[in-house]
Amino acid sequence: MFTYNNALFKCILQILLPHTRNTHFRGRTCVYNICPCLLMQCMCVGLGCAKRSNCYFTALHFFLLAAIVASVRVKSNDMEMNPAAATETATTPGGGTARRERRFEDDASTPTSSASSAPTPTPTPTPASIAADYMRNFENIIQPGKEASMTREFNPQVAYEFERYLNPQKLKQHVLGSEKLRSILEHYARKTQQPLKKMQQQAKAIIDEIGLDRNMAIIRWCGIAITAIGQRICDGFYVNSASMANVRKDMGRCPVLYLPSHRSYMDFILMSYICYYYDIEIPGIAAGMDFHSMFGMGTMLRKTGAFFMRRSFSNDELYWDIFREYMYALVANYHIGVEFFIEGTRSRNFKALVPKVGLLSMALLPYFTGEVPDVMIVPVSVAYERVLEEQLFVYELLGVPKPKETTKGFFKALKIIDERFGKMFLDFGDPISVREFFGHDSGQRMQRAGVGGHLQKLNRQEIELIKQLANEIIYQQQRRIVINTFNLLSLYYASQLYAQRSSNIDELSRGLLHLKRIFNQLGAHVSIKASSIKADIIDAVEIHSNIVQFSQARLQFTPLAAKQLATQIDVKRMKAHALCPSTMAVAVPMLALQLYVNPCLFWLARPAYLLLAALKEQRKQEQQQHSSGSYSYDSTLSALHSYVSSMDSLFQHEFIIESNREAVEFETHLQLLLDEKVLELEASGRIKVQDNECAHVILAALAPFLCLYYQLAVTLRQIPFDIEFSNKDLLVRVQKHVEQLLQQPGGAAPHVHPYCLALDNLNIAIQALIQRGYLLKCRDSGQLRVVDAPGKCLRQLEQQLLEYCQLMPFAQYSMAANQQAQCHIAKL
């Protein structure tokens, strides 16, 4: 905490505006003409803390000041670039005025002028035209002139309508005074032999720690900050206004749960900002205690609607029951809606994680007890052209410990205002009625509202229903995630890299337009515009210049200095094996590239399974020809189904695509491969796979995961059956093994990819092998042991994975990256 003074204000401005260090604080820029003391006091008045004799400079003040300065820099840059710009204006949902902006357009749906006015028959919509129509629903809500007015009156649509509404303090009192909580506290008083009054004091302290608050002045100031910083570092916040309107029209009848995908801390901010923009009540947001302990930030988040929960409270039964009662009241008796992340944590590999059903179960308890008639669930899909934590995630995947969330770290993060992060897309799925999804009528639900909170438990059937619902939510989130230019560029570049080919801008343009057509056929939403494909590629490369760059007109990895890595990383603090700098220099850019490929796996995982199945069946048929074997059309399709199901089962924790739509998707994917001339399937059942570009791209997406599972199986086979080992021991063994392979001359070892070093994915693979019975985990000690049992032979799994790896059209995966890294190191 720093006592505010004029010199400090000037110092901060100089830090945030380095190009003005030799400029006096006067002149034509309006911010400099404001008395610094008066500016800070005005900020404090707005926040309800205007004690002029003792004004303190908190983290929140620094954040808001950075936003004001960023806003000035944005406006200054705009004036320099176009000082005489005149725009046509219109009223916007955010309460401001807007330029007439060009939304997402595509050549597939752009109308052409005609001299004839004669009516023409309506053409049948194509996948490209349907996709283009959908993308036109996205609008940039921070476009200058269209941003939200933070001074307007806020009369939002509430999520759940009541005759009388509680405020945050009365909500706490409601929980503390409820009969259910009283029965809980009496239960624990008897159990612990403590006075009831002491238990009530503990309960009040816990609810004060958990409970949300609301301060519109802080919300408005934060909105100003988000707008200013967003306009500086982003090319836009694009929201599907049609899907938002669809959500809004169903509000008011029952509680609403907003469940966004979770790739960045920005997810917290975007949802609240968008709700304010569209006049929807800002929901209560579940946040971890990491933020609660941050000086200044914890208070700010609480006053914007955050309620806090401990990361783990399985051993604290009292906390568990009180948190559950607060969540129960928040859903059943409060009007604002609730937001939480069903994946539980940020996905550091940019693909969906296995859903956690703990919070969802708590939130649905009022429905199962009959206290609310229904619950409306809104899946929310958030996509980033460049994730703010991208580089941090890459290092964490390789074992560098996650830095603790602190206010000091927040100050350091302000340097991002000089970087570009492209566009952010947010889409809302069709609301899911829990009652309709479960197929319930009012008489089927258990009436348990009067039962003590510590006795309210969901039965096994209800938990199974919730798991099915959670998988459907994840499925709907992924269906609406926008695939951007760099996602497809990363996918195409990876396929070329593995095939030892390089690409120029013309080849990349053709490749990306081909991929756009494939993804549109599958039903994905792609933000690429055919009319500006080359400009979009150049812009994407510029935004991601830390990963790739054009060198001699060819796309290449941006060199990463091994010596620089050696000074940045403390190998003693690595979570697993201490990787050497030369390994890191190869792994970092390839992992970063793969992170942007991963969002495509929702659409390509099953087509890749089918393609591998076809390759395997083709080899089998070729062997049968020499041994006079026979096959038919039905037997070939049955074999393909069997192989795809086997891979689906193996990778079920890796790609969360379970949806009970397997049969329909199999037909869709088979038709895609036939249309793209990847497969030929004759009436006799004979199958043939063509080695073309489409096949390479689809298999390139899956290749790193096949390599990872194969190298994990190889490592486990080297461990004797009678040896117990910890999860960390196994991670160290795998990373050591993979590093040795990557360090072979030229990086030419087969079936190994730097992604095999990614700890999060190794943990997912280990969990998959435990679930399938190849590994045994001791419930008490947590130690692992390789299973030696009939039907669970690790040798067979290794051979199966090796066969699939050998079917890949790529000899190796890291040679090109290794050669580039060695070339750069030699130059240094």
UniProtKB/TrEMBL annotation:
GO biological process: ether lipid biosynthetic process; fatty acid metabolic process; phospholipid biosynthetic process; triglyceride biosynthetic process
Low complexity: compositionally biased ranges: 83-92, 109-119
Membrane topology label: Peripheral membrane protein
Swiss-Prot/TrEMBL catalytic activity: dihydroxyacetone phosphate + hexadecanoyl-CoA = 1-hexadecanoylglycerone 3-phosphate + CoA; dihydroxyacetone phosphate + an acyl-CoA = a 1-acylglycerone 3-phosphate + CoA
Domain Phospholipid/glycerol acyltransferase per the UniProt entry, residue ranges: 256-385
Region (Disordered): 82-128
Keywords: Acetylation, Acyltransferase, Membrane, Peroxisome, Phosphoprotein, Transferase
SUPFAM superfamilies: Glycerol-3-phosphate (1)-acyltransferase (SSF69593)
EC number annotated for this UniProt entry: 2.3.1.42
A GO molecular function held by the record: glycerone-phosphate O-acyltransferase activity
Pfam families: Acyltransferase, GPAT_C
Cellular localisation: Peroxisome membrane
Top EC group: transferase
Pathway the protein contributes to: Membrane lipid metabolism; glycerophospholipid metabolism; Lipid metabolism
PANTHER family: DIHYDROXYACETONE PHOSPHATE ACYLTRANSFERASE (PTHR12563:SF17), GLYCEROL-3-PHOSPHATE ACYLTRANSFERASE (PTHR12563)
Record's subunit section: Part of a heterotrimeric complex composed of GNPAT, AGPS and a modified form of GNPAT.
Function as written in the Swiss-Prot or TrEMBL entry: Dihydroxyacetonephosphate acyltransferase catalyzing the first step in the biosynthesis of plasmalogens, a subset of phospholipids that differ from other glycerolipids by having an alkyl chain attached through a vinyl ether linkage at the sn-1 position of the glycerol backbone, and which unique physical properties have an impact on various aspects of cell signaling and membrane biology.
Protein name per its UniProtKB record: Dihydroxyacetone phosphate acyltransferase
Native organism taxonomy: Eukaryota, Metazoa, Ecdysozoa, Arthropoda, Hexapoda
